[in-house]
Fold:
Amino acid sequence: MCEKEGFIERYYTDGPKDRVDETIRDMKDYTRSLVVEEMNLGNLIENAVKEMAAQEAKEEDEDIEEDLSLEEIEALRD
Structure:
């Protein structure tokens, strides 16, 4: 069909035909309900992002302090 007509038509299917289709439909429905019905979702995401940024900053500070202390040790050896 593709060689004769240059494309393959898409046919509408009424519903899921196998477990994969059912799983995809369920995930879409869950995601839609999560976004539409969960009123506090935006705040939860925002707080999680802020917490991740704070954790990264803390790790960077610890790395800098560790580097400084190593440099001090080396300076004392010289």
